[in-house]
Amino acid sequence: MITISSRNNRLIVDSAKLHDKKYRDQSSLFFFEGRKLLSEAIASSVDIVRVFLTEKNADMADLLPDSTEKYIVTNEVYAKLTEEKSPEGVFSVAKHLDSLHIFATIYKGANSDRCLAAVSLRDPGNLGTLMRTSAALGLDCLIISSDCADIYSPKTVRASMGAVFRLRTLRTDSVCETLASLPACGITPMAACLSSRAATLGISALPNNVCFVVGNEGHGLDTEVISSCAGGEIIIPMAEGAESLNVSVAASILLWEDRRRRL
Questions:
Q1: Cα torsion for 249, 104, 168, 244, to the nearest 10°?
Q2: 167-180: string of b/e by CB count within 10 Å (b at 16+)?
Q3: What is the pLDDT of residue 218?
Q4: Which CATH number fits domain 101-260: 1.10.10.10, 2.60.40.10, 3.50.50.60, 3.40.1280.10?
Q5: Res 111 pLDDT > 70
Q6: Three-class SS string for the chain?
Q7: Quick check: 106 and 178 in contact, CB under 8 A?
Q8: What is the Cα–Cα distance from 110 to 96, expressed in whole angstroms?
Q9: pLDDT tens digits, 41-98
Q10: Can you give the pTM of this predicted structure?
Q11: CATH says 2-95 is which class?
């Protein structure tokens, strides 16, 4: 392995730019940190371009394919790469997963697909958590509107705990059109919202293949999106006085109830 001791090395400077979404988009590259995420990426056959390791993590190089560039860096150089307060010393650069994360309008999944739709989620931590939960509860696809947080944001990738490497996502400019295409695939979208008309989770019957639709952290779903949901509205019963739940928590409850009835 080559040792890099200069913070001004071209590879170090270029890799540090990946904190910027604009550069991630231009280069079709993203990064993630830590031993666990690197192990998950290797297990998922992610195309890892290069890895920067501090001396204490040199053993990770043995796990990498021959096609991956491997570098040892000093702690001072690693500080140029990371924004973590307590970094592990493993910085990996990989190619976008274009065959897994697609941009489209019409959903073309199989009838057996289970999916979740997220509209206008701005917090990358929430998006990453939704990906992690979706993968854990057996979903096939996550549908997201184009104004959601960046899938390849380091906060999203970290919160996903490796789910970003495995979970199929469909990003859409027209979420209403996408939701309207689901019934043709045997999937019924239901809007998660506070409404007197909403069915109650755990009491009301759910469609066989349901796609719950969750909205923005502060404003929820707009009326146009709700109207695009053929299955109507669904609400999680809460204690008196409680106004709402965090969107990732709400999605977890919805998805677990759907999975529970299938056990």
A1: 0
A2: bbbbbbeebbebbb
A3: 87
A4: 3.40.1280.10
A5: no
A6: CEEECCCCCHHHHHHHHHHCHHHHHHHCEEEEECHHHHHHHHHCCCCEEEEEECHHHHHHHHHCCCCCEEEEECHHHHHHHCCCCCCCCEEEEEECCCCCEEECCCCCCCCCCCEEEECCCCCHHHHHHHHHHHHHCCCCEEEEECCCCCCCCHHHHHHHCCHHHCCEEEEECCHHHHHHHCHHHCCEEEEECCCCCCEECCCCCCCCCEEEEECECCCECCHHHHHCCCCCEEECCCCCCCCCCCHHHHHHHHHHHHHHCCC
A7: yes
A8: 24
A9: 999 999 999 999 999 999 999 999 999 999 999 999 999 999 999 999 999 999 999 9
A10: 0.93
A11: alpha beta
Please report where in the chains the tokens 């409850």 appear, as a residue. Answer: 253
Enter the tokens of residue 48.
């890892």
**Count of residues making up the chain:** 263
